[in-house]
Amino acid sequence: MLIPFPSFESSLTGLLDAAEELRLGRLVEAGAILGPIQQQLSRVRGSVRHARLAQHVADALNACHRGETECALHVLVTAFTAFIPRRAA
User: Fold this and answer.
1) Cα separation, 27 vs 84, whole angstroms
2) What is the rounded end-to-end Cα distance, in angstroms, of the chain?
3) pLDDT tens-digit profile of 44-81?
4) Helices 69-83 & 8-23, crossing angle to 10 degrees?
5) Burial 69-80 (b: 16+ CB within 10 A, else e)
6) pTM over 0.85
7) CA neighbor of 64 nearest in space, from 17, 19, 15, 31
8) Residue 42 neighbours by CB under 8 Å, 6+ apart
């Protein structure tokens, strides 16, 4: 089975959706969005950028599981500023 190479742009919509869910205080919904994104990004081998973005998403997901809305949102905003290309923002 061929696994598509996830680009940062392909993750942008899901990450924005998760951030909106967090803004509204819906941790479960945000976690449901972040889980598949993190799994897809962590499958990429040999890309430091993908690995670091996957770690940020995993940190946001862990914050969701702990009920820390502000922390999860902060981690996602940090990921946006650090990893999303300027042309996509």
Assistant:
1) 23
2) 32
3) 888 888 888 899 999 999 999 999 999 999 999 998 88
4) 150
5) bebbbebbeebb
6) no
7) 31
8) 50, 51, 54, 58
